[in-house]
Design goal:
3-stranded antiparallel beta sheet, 5-stranded parallel beta sheet, globular, alpha/beta, about 1000 residues, 16 strands
Length: about 1000
């Protein structure tokens, strides 16, 4: 009964369309797993294993009749029972009753399944998906092909025809599994073609362990490792494969595998890059179109437009010898650099058909955009998967230039600070071009075509004014209009603001506007150079504001951060959210404020500087600026404290946090709370960082403590550290040991998270000294707890136990039961490290009991307890409860968005599977841990994961790759002088060489 279709899958019954209105629920059958029949959501009884075998045999015959003899052979082979024919008839009769009429029919002494609806058999659906994927791949549509193959593979529910007896079912099982593996290899091959090599390593590691003799999987793993920068491991896979094939089959690797090894050894440049890089779920290379809209009333600048257009056309043309061009526009703020650059860029779009990138580099502000951040955004816009974006500036710049190679893309770098900021963002190949705008002339930008943009000529200025206001209104008051543009200093931004005001006020005449501008009290001196000329244009809009609008404009400019939420802005203004929103939207209408997204607002960097200058100049009430920032800090502190309480209910720290005068937000659930915290991270930490007055320092330090998840998750660690060090410096200036101690404590914690153990230990010691001086119960308990953790990590177990015992006493003295549980769990790990397994389990269980008793439920702290308990139980050989504890912890850490501990729990699961003699599962978990911990956690943690990965690989026979992992781990441990180095040396010394 060979029922194989031409495209590789078994042939199945032809199916008709069903599901018309009024029809009963259609029958559905599954064979890619247990054999099942369903009518809608109702599962039908399919009887005994032999009865299901009969159903499966009929389903796989594509509607053709199977004789009774063929069915007997299918169910029992060469040794059927004496009543086999009667049994077949009984099975058929029972199935006919369970199924719809006319589905199982009797014909010529045999049986057949007919008239199935479209999509009735999961195998048929899988075949359709596979055929669709083949067509998409042939058409070059790899993204859709991958997606469709994933849908096909997702139809499997374990082993095909699971539990079905008989020789026919066994043959079909083998065939279906071979087909599934072929589909999987095709999808993995396309993963690598599209540059998703880093994500594929974990899956391929598990597959090669499960199917060690399947050479195509080994070949794909070698390529994925090589493209992930793991060349030694890739070569080790080949060595492992060659040895295994020789031992098991007595053959050499096939030619394709040998050729791949040769190319890796020669560092073949064509091998390093995927043939068709694209990010999920892109179908083709992403074509970015990021240019802002050009203004419809663009006026003048004809000579500059022609000059820049000529340069760009030469760079983007098809002729030989084209070079990458850089044109840098310089001029004072408000002179129209961005407007001109965007206009020229839009005109040049046909010359750059592969796309246009744009970024505001915020060079005029206090915190210009970092090149590595911009490159990350550009790489994502070009279709690079998040997991494939490197960490360092140099690697990002190199990948960026590689992605632009062979493409014609225009890059508009707006508002640059200096040449150093721009250089990493420039394309590196012919056919591309960059337009740069800046307040400074970039004479040190090699090869750049420099353009100095001056103010408009009187005719151009008047033309711009007329296009906005209208010819009819200007024609009768030409002299007044000339007075207006002259008062604006012929600066385009100032002219646009003035004209827009006039256009929106139909009762004004041009003379009215000219008279207003003639009053020097309402504008800055036009004759001054630089920023004063820019501020003069802003004065036009600011001077026309109502008092409440002006106050809002001034105070909101005080807050750092890329933008501000409506509720945070309401706190700054001390207004109900509804009134604050009305004010903010009115400022948006005046173009003095931008609406970044619904409920979020931002200033252009120059407008922010101007708003702050106005606040310094115009605020009448004493200390109003400080009071406004104090309210913002109170809002962030109160809301972050609420998030902390949801994440860590019952935590005594909550009683020791400062209470401000301004309330925060409340949340309906944990997800909403975490959404707020991570969305507000930049603004919240910026508020901490700019706090410098004695009256706010303690609240700033407490905000660091309440928002610890931002640093611990790894997402905002860098900004968190900057904020903590800013509070430390300010506290030292004001001699505030309370604030300094808490800031150093949190700094120590994040340093430990990032693997900087020596620095973390020093900060924790300094924090403890300050905490004792300030009699701060939080620092006096948490600092020795942190010291104990660091001592544990660095192998100083006696010190660790001393510190943690001290922390335990301090937590108990403060009646901090969650803190007590934390210290107990940490002590459990010390006992575990010193061979006291029984007491380690006991201590961890005490900690978990406290968490559960205090009704912390699914809170983050309980995850920490489950983590410690899982480690202790693993060491005690209690694998099943250990697996349950670690799996619980993994889910909790994922829900809490704690990427570091998500990765570390995967690592601990790898260790558990090693202890349970499951090396393949261990290797898969370790690979997942490496992916999750990419860029966070530090080298020490990565080396521990590599050690576990090596042990898993060694267990599945991949000896050479295991040695490569151990050698890399040993290098890290030796550099860090970690005691783990001795264990890895022992592994390398005792492991056989492949």
């Amino acid at each position: 009964m060979d029922d194989r279709a031409e495209h590789g899958g078994p042939r199945v019954p032809q199916q008709r369309r069903s599901g018309a209105a009024g029809e009963p629920a259609a029958l559905r059958f599954d064979v890619l797993g247990p054999v099942r029949a369903r009518r809608g959501e109702q599962q039908l009884t399919t009887g005994s294993p032999q009865q299901r075998a009969l159903l499966a045999a009929l389903l796989l015959r594509e509607g053709r009749t199977a004789t009774a003899g063929e069915l007997i052979d299918a169910l029992w082979g060469e040794d059927p029972p004496s009543q086999a024919l009667a049994a077949v008839r009984t099975y058929a009769s029972r199935l006919r009753k369970a199924l719809d009429p006319g589905v199982l029919v009797t014909e010529s002494g045999g049986y057949a399944v007919r008239g199935l609806g479209e999509g009735a058999l999961d195998l048929a659906v899988a075949q359709e998906f596979a055929a669709e994927a083949d067509k998409a791949r042939a058409a070059g549509d790899l993204g859709r092909a991958r997606q469709t193959l994933n849908r096909a593979l997702g139809l499997w529910d374990g082993e095909a025809l699971a539990g079905v007896p008989g020789p026919y079912a066994e043959a079909q099982r083998v065939r279906l599994e071979e087909w599934r593996l072929g589909l999987l290899e095709s999808r993995l091959d396309m993963d690598l073609e599209q540059g998703c090599h880093a994500d594929a390593v974990s899956e391929l590691t598990a597959l090669t362990a499960a199917y060690p003799l399947r050479e195509r999987l080994r070949e794909l793993l070698m390529l994925a490792l090589y493209r992930s920068g793991r060349q030694a491991e890739a070569l080790a896979v080949y060595a492992d494969t060659r040895r295994l094939l020789a031992e098991e089959l007595g053959v050499d690797p096939r030619a394709g595998l040998r050729e791949l090894q040769r190319r890796i050894l020669q560092a073949d440049p064509e091998l390093a890059e995927p043939s068709a890089p694209a990010a999920e779920p892109a179908v083709v290379r992403v074509r970015p179109a990021q240019l802002p809209a050009t203004v419809p009333d663009f006026t003048g600048r004809a000579a500059f437009v022609a000059e820049l257009s000529e340069v760009l056309a030469a760079a983007g043309g098809d002729g030989a010898g084209g070079v990458m061009a850089v044109s840098a526009l310089a001029g004072i703020g408000g002179v129209g650099k961005t407007t001109l650059a965007v206009h020229v860029a839009h005109r040049a779009r046909p010359v750059f058909p592969d796309g246009q990138l744009y970024v505001d580099l915020q060079g005029a502000g206090a915190r210009a955009a970092e090149p590595e951040t911009v490159l990350g955004a550009f790489l994502r816009a070009l279709g690079t998967a998040e997991s494939a974006i490197p960490d360092s500036l140099e690697e990002r710049a190199a990948l960026y230039r590689s992605l632009l190679d062979g493409r014609r893309i225009l890059v508009l770098l707006d508002n640059a600070r200096d040449a150093a900021q721009v250089r990493p963002l420039l394309p590196g190949t012919e056919g591309c071009a960059a337009l740069v705008t800046s307040r400074v002339r970039m004479v040190d930008l090699a090869g750049a075509h420099l353009v100095d943009l001056d103010v408009m000529s009187p005719d151009e200025a008047l033309s711009l004014f007329t296009r906005i206001v209208g010819e009819e209104r200007v024609a009768s008051e030409r002299e007044a209009a000339l007075d207006v543009v002259a008062a604006c200093g012929f600066l385009p931004l100032a002219i646009r603001i003035a004209a827009s005001r006039l256009a929106s006020r139909r009762t004004w005449t041009v003379s009215v506007l000219a008279a207003k501008l003639a009053d020097e009290r309402r504008r800055l001196d036009e004759l001054q150079a630089g920023d004063l000329a820019v501020k003069a244009t802003f004065e036009l809009g600011y001077g026309a504001l109502e008092p409440a609008q002006a106050r809002a404009f001034r105070l909101l400019g005080l807050a750092d951060g890329p933008d501000i939420s409506l509720r945070a802005a309401a706190a700054v203004l001390d207004l109900p959210p509804e009134e604050a929103e009305d004010l903010l939207e009115s400022l948006v209408d005046t173009s003095l404020l931008e609406s970044a997204a619904p409920g979020r607002y931002r200033y252009h960097d120059l407008v922010r500087l101007y708003a702050r200058a106005c606040a310094e100049r115009d605020e009448q009430a004493a200390g109003e600026r400080e009071v406004a920032m104090s309210r913002l800090l109170d809002f962030y502190l109160a809301t972050a404290t609420g998030v902390y309480a949801i994440e860590r209910p019952g935590e005594r720290v909550l009683d020791h946090l400062s209470r401000g005068d301004y309330p925060g937000l409340t949340f309906r659930d944990r997800g909403q709370a975490l959404d707020w915290l991570f969305t507000e991270a930049s603004g919240l930490l910026a508020a901490v960082q700019q706090t410098g007055t004695a009256g706010m320092l303690r609240r700033a330090a407490d905000l660091l403590l309440a928002a610890v998840d931002l640093g611990e998750s790894g997402i905002s660690s860098r900004q968190y550290v900057l904020a903590a060090t800013a509070v430390v410096a300010a506290a030292q200036r004001t001699r505030d040991p309370y604030a300094e101690g808490r800031a150093r404590l949190m700094h120590s914690h994040i340093l430990g998270v990032s693997g900087q153990f020596a620095e973390s230990d020093r900060e924790a010691g300094a924090a403890l000294t300050l905490g004792l001086a300030a009699q701060d119960p939080v620092v006096c308990a948490q600092a020795p707890n942190q010291q104990g953790i660091i001592a544990l990590y660095t192998g100083r177990h006696d010190e660790a136990e001393q510190h943690l015992t001290k922390a335990l006493a301090a937590f108990r003295a403060d009646r901090n039961t969650p803190g007590e549980a934390s210290a107990l769990c940490n002590l459990s790990r010390v006992h575990l490290a010193t061979g006291r397994t029984e007491s380690a389990v006991s201590l961890a269980r005490q900690g978990v009991t406290i968490y559960e008793r205090d009704d912390t439920g699914m809170a983050l702290r309980l995850a920490n307890g489950k983590y410690a308990l899982g480690l202790a139980l693993t060491s005690a050989g209690e694998i099943t409860p250990a697996l349950r504890a670690l799996t619980d912890a993994l889910g909790m850490f994922q829900d809490a968005r704690q990427q570091l501990w998500h990765g570390m729990t995967l690592f601990r699961l790898a260790e558990l599977h090693l202890a349970d003699h499951g090396p393949a599962r261990a290797a898969a978990c370790a690979e997942q841990a490496l992916a999750v911990l990419h860029g966070i956690g530090g080298d020490w943690r990565r080396a521990n994961v590599l050690t576990a990965l090596g042990r898993g690989l060694h267990g599945v026979g991949q000896l050479d790759r295991a040695r490569v992992c151990w050698q890399e781990a040993l290098s890290v441990f030796e550099t860090l002088r970690s005691p783990e180095a001795a264990d890895v040396r022992a592994l390398l010394a005792t492991a056989p060489v492949g």
